[in-house]
Every structure is written in C-alpha cells, then in structure tokens.
Amino acid sequence: MYKIKDLPFDERPKERLIKLGASFLADEELLAIILKTGTKEYSVKILASKLLIELGGINNLEQTNLVKLQKIKGIGQTKAVTIMAVIELAKRMHQKQRFLLQEKITNSQMVYDYFCDKIGNLKQEHFFCLYLDSQKKVIHEKKLFIGTINKSLVHPREIFKEAFLVSAFSIICVHNHPSGDLKPSTADLDFTKDLKKMGDLFGIGVDDHIIVSKNGFFSFFDNNLF
C-alpha cells in the first residue's frame, strides 16, 4: 500500500504544507493528507486526484455521501467516514451557524448573507423560519420541511405553532430555489398570502419571505408583495 512517506520528500503534501502553508497546496494534496494512504495500485496523491475526478471536482464534494464515496475504488469505510467528517466540519465553519442568534434583523441582505451558504447550493428545497422578538432580534431558527412548498407538506399553522412555543413577535420565512431562478412560483405566492392572513389572525407579524439561490435572493417585502 502506498503511503505519503513513499513519495519523494519535496512532493509530500504534509511537508509542503509545513513549509509553504495550507493555502499553497492543491485540492488533491489537501485531500491526500486527509486520506493518509493510497492503495496497492495508486499513491495517495493519485487516489485523491481520482476521487476528485469521480466526484466532478472540489465543488461537488459537499454533495456526496458515504454510499457514493465507498463506491469509488480505493475508498473504504474508514476513508469515507473521515471525508464526511471533514465536509461536515467545513460546512459548520462556513455557515456561521450562530451569526443570527440575538442579532437584530434590519434588512433582507442580512438574512441572505446567512442563508446563502446554508441552503443556496442545495439540490432540494429547504424551508426555514426565523422567529423574532419585538425588537426584531432572532430568538429561534427552525427548519420546518424539505421539499417544494405545498400545503400538503407544511401548513402555516405548523409555522405559527413554533412561534407560540418561543413567544415570537414576528417571523421571517426563507427557502431556496435549487434551479437558481429567483422568481416566486404560484405556490410561493399563494403560500405567502395564506401565511400573512394567518399571521394577522394570530397577531404574529410576517416580516418577510425570502427566496435564496446561489445567484442571489428575492424578498417579498422588498418587492412590495406584502
């Protein structure tokens, strides 16, 4: 089995990182450090390169899973688990998960800056709600469902049930469009209209509904749809 130490000294990713810094290493070199060992056929650097090619590049790494990884020749369970752990850590660091807690929301851009990394690149729609106090500070965040907006999947009352539990003064809804098209669908418009009506009935404000994609965002409030 090929190991990193089997490579010429000046080609070893670990030594290059120590000497030059992590930012100077190529994607396959960083991945080689994580993988640690290659196979009987391939050095760890070649294995790392083949893995990236198989997945379609570093940008698709976060979309993979254990099953997909273990189907790649040379990637066993241990390597796959290690890669998934690194991916999850990277996601949590990048998403700044605590950023909005107790933060006062003053504009839609703040919400987008938080959610663009969280759900902007996902392949399936995710629906979140931010629950705010009377000063517009975020007191709670909740992912309510995954899938296209539809009353059969989530009813506005489920959203407001959570609002009552945390004593929210108002809410902001956020969901992503994997297609990248930011134009609200008919379902988006109808759902938001019903949500606003129910909010008025319950005395809980619906401050905004924001559609997020990798290309930008659409705010119902900013576009005078409230």
Notes on the structure:
The mean pLDDT is 86. The relative contact order is 0.09. α2 packs across α3. The chain is α+β, with helices and mostly antiparallel strands and 226 residues long. Strands 2-1-3-4-5 form a 5-stranded mixed beta sheet, sandwiched between helices. It has 2 domains: 92 residues, 5' to 3' exonuclease, C-terminal subdomain (DNA polymerase, domain 1, Orthogonal Bundle); 112 residues, Cytidine Deaminase, domain 2 (3-Layer(aba) Sandwich), CATH 3.40.140.10. The chain has 8 helices and 5 strands; from the N terminus they run ααααααββαβαββ.
Q: Estimate what percentage of residues fall within beta strands.
A: 15-25%
Largest sheet report? 5 strands, mixed
- Number of separate domains: 2
Question: Overall pLDDT, averaged?
Answer: 86
Class by helix and strand content? alpha+beta
Radius of gyration over C-alpha positions, nearest whole angstrom: 22 Å
Strand order across the largest sheet:
2-1-3-4-5
Q: Give the number of DSSP strands.
A: 5
Q: By CATH's scheme, which homologous superfamily of the largest domain applies?
A: Cytidine Deaminase, domain 2
Percent helix range: 40-55%
CATH architecture of the largest domain, by name, is 3-Layer(aba) Sandwich
Report the CATH C-level class of the largest domain.
Alpha Beta
Helices and strands, in order, run as HHHHHHEEHEHEE
Please give the count of helices.
8
The best one-word shape is elongated
Uncertain stretches of 5 or more adjacent residues: none
Give the termini distance in whole angstroms.
Answer: 63 Å
